[in-house]
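Archive transcription. Copying these from loose printouts into the bound notebook so they stop getting lost. Printout 1 of 2:
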Amino acid sequence: MGWSVGCINMSSRIAVLEEKVKIWKASRANWVARIKDIMLKQRTIAKECSLTGKGIHTGHSVNVVFKPRSANEASVLCVRILPNVP
């Protein structure tokens, strides 16, 4: 006779928990594999470059600068809309 708590058989609760652990481990392995795949596909540009043109909606002059980044460094997007605003 197995252990029981209230009306629930303890061995069936353990079986359910073991199944949840198996699912979690499989899910975690997939997640880790995807992250490693993303990390391996990182690319950067060789040198700084820029583009200049006219804004589509405002018609103002626009200057976009692309800068190379080192591995695992995030890119930052800065937008300056109003004149004389840093």
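Printout 2 of 2:
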Amino acid sequence: MARKQRPTPDPAHAERLFLDAAGHFQAGRYRDAAAILKRLATAFPDHPEVLYLLGLAVLQAGRVREAIEPLQHAARLAPGRADVTRST
């Protein structure tokens, strides 16, 4: 049986989700932030800001190994961005 694919969120909805995740992150709710960011990373797998914040949220939640891939992927996507590459 084929697996259902989630529809890609429209850009305005995705931006609201990202801002929600950033708010959770700033409030120290790293697991809540990571849950939202994982959904966004699935929909936008090459979005460096999403991947970077996902990596940081997962790292802050204590899951170091899980944080490596999104942080490295963000750094590959945005090699000139100091905010993205400084953590890798």
